[in-house]
Amino acid sequence: xxxxxxxxxxxxxxxxxxxxxxxxxxxxxxxxxxxxxxxxxxxxxxxxxxxxxxxxxxxxxxxxxxxxxxxxxxxxxxxxxxxxxxxxxxxxxxxxxxxxxxxxxxxxxxxxxxxxxxxxxxxxxxxxxxxxxxxxxxxxxxxxxxxxxxxxxxxxxxxxxxxxxxxxxxxxxxxxxxxxxxxxxxxxxxxxxxxxxxxxxxxxxxxxxxxxxxxxxxxxxxxxxxxxxxxxxxxxxxxxxxxxxxxxxxxxxxxxxxxxxxxxxxxxxxxxxxxxxxxxxxxxxxxxxxxxxxxxxxxxxxxxxxxxxxxxxxxxxxxxxxxxxxxxxxxxxxxxxxxxxxxxxxxxxxxx
Length: 352
Known about the structure:
Layout: H1 5-13, E1 19-23, H2 26-34, H3 37-40, E2 45-49, H4 54-57, H5 60-70, E3 75-79, H6 95-100, E4 104-107, H7 113-120, E5 125-132, H8 137-150, E6 155-161, H9 164-172, E7 181-185, H10 186-192, E8 206-210, H11 214-229, E9 235-237, H12 249-258, E10 259-266, E11 270-279, H13 288-291, H14 307-312, H15 343-349
Parallel strand pairs: 1-2, 1-7, 3-4, 3-5, 5-6, 7-8, 8-9
Antiparallel strand pairs: 10-11
Helix pairs in contact: 1-11, 8-12
């Protein structure tokens, strides 16, 4: 007999133990809130929003650097829209504010658009902000390879790309945290495949790869609790229509060809080993850090902002003392209130 959506919700709510389940995808954070999933679950099912928004996890060190870079003469910053209003160590440090001061900032929807801007502005240094997890890293790799093929010499990339596995490991190894299971990101799994989350077995922690519709998320939560109840700490795939065991090998090879793995900084988590992508030395001519090195001094924290604690899952967005008081989408103090996938912006929008 077919198990209905209502049956699955009933099973989830019949679970007597308190469980903490973390999603590590900003799209899941938005979908869970949009569909009101928290409102239909019992209080002992604790859904935690983790470090799943690449804009949000970018620390002030990089954001201040981007701001200063944008104000340099003959530099054009090319970026996706979410980065425009993200504040650095002070609310006044944003690309939007830099643009008001005369900085040249262009919003694009594809990394390849940066090439066209570079061709039309060959007297400028065009800097593309490569941001995102494994999902968007291949697009930056294509940009670099295409720039090399066409011998375009005024295009550069700031690689802010990060890997999901290392940060999930960091959360699991944090003795102050207790996560019973992960809602694994379907977008990332398109590239990494199921095998990208096999490491969870090392921690005796279950995970379920999930899609983004209501039925898909409930199915994933249902499977998570089945696994937890049976103490079957395995990885399950509830997104089989798109996610395969081996993932997208072409994208994986593109990443390996263009990028090396490095230790990298995350907001709230500090330096996480092997968690970032660095442009390989053979393509260093396209690495903006070769031209303008970053000074990794500790950046000042935004006054009272607790985005770092939110991203670690230590607090919910509405537990931050600034939430809806001085911090809102019109006056964001931290990045989680700016990005369309930020947990604070999502909680604000859906009045959680």
